[in-house]
């Protein structure tokens, strides 16, 4: 357990203090696109201008790049607040262990300030998108030995990754700020001949909605071009 405590004390990465410099997510771009479509239906934008601005929305990488696209529209909101996350309560699970097997934590569950995941020649899935947080943040200690652990967080989440890969992979690409008011997840640990992957995804219902929205947008563009 001394190793686990030492990993928990590793320094955090500094996050940008200006929310406008934060990377925009797919959900942010879709919200701004909806503002534009509403403005077009109200006669505030011509169809050719709508298409031009939609192209700029989907090319935007940060909130600062999204902001000018809707600056002249009365309902513009480019830096949305985080989805409310329930806080408090007793953790329903504090560890997951997979030895030549698997473990899964997903759906509605309560995570505490610390969660330990161990995969020895096995696999584990830790999904925090619909989880409640006993506190505003959680430290996940992930140890994968000839196995793999997948960690999924919401797009609102601030993510800090300090893990190390030894003849294995520990994914740091998701590390970065979330939205104001969102939870904070720190991932520490070791991947030895194995892998730990951290990814940001919207809830399954939102994924389905986006799929339908992209289909509708494709049809609209086809109609505009026809």
Please provide a written account of the structure.
The chain is an alpha/beta fold. The chain contains 5 helices and 12 strands. Strands 1, 3, 5, 6, 8, 9 and 11 form a 7-stranded parallel beta sheet that branches. A 5-stranded parallel beta sheet has the order 2-4-7-12-10, with no helix packed on it. Helix 2 runs antiparallel to helix 3. The longest helix is centred in the C-terminal third of the chain and has 22 residues. The radius of gyration is 20 Å and the shape is elongated. The N and C termini lie far apart (65 Å).
| Largest sheet composition | 7 strands, parallel
Shape: elongated
As a whole number of angstroms, the C-alpha radius of gyration is 20 Å
Q: Separation of termini?
A: 65 Å
- H-E order: HHHHEEEEEEEEEEEEH
Q: What is the overall number of helices?
A: 5
Structural class: alpha/beta
Task: Please state roughly what percent of the residues sit in beta strands, choosing from under 5%, 5-15%, 15-25%, 25-35%, 35-45% or over 45%.
Answer: 25-35%
Give the proportion of residues in helices. 25-40%
Mean pLDDT across all residues, rounded? 82
Using DSSP, what is the number of strands? Answer: 12
Low-confidence stretches: 1-17
Topology:
Layout: H1 2-8, H2 26-41, H3 47-59, H4 63-66, E1 93-99, E2 102-105, E3 110-120, E4 123-127, E5 132-133, E6 137-145, E7 148-153, E8 158-161, E9 164-166, E10 169-170, E11 184-192, E12 195-200, H5 204-225
Parallel strand pairs: 1-3, 2-4, 3-5, 3-6, 4-7, 6-11, 7-12, 8-11, 9-11, 10-12
Helix pairs in contact: 2-3
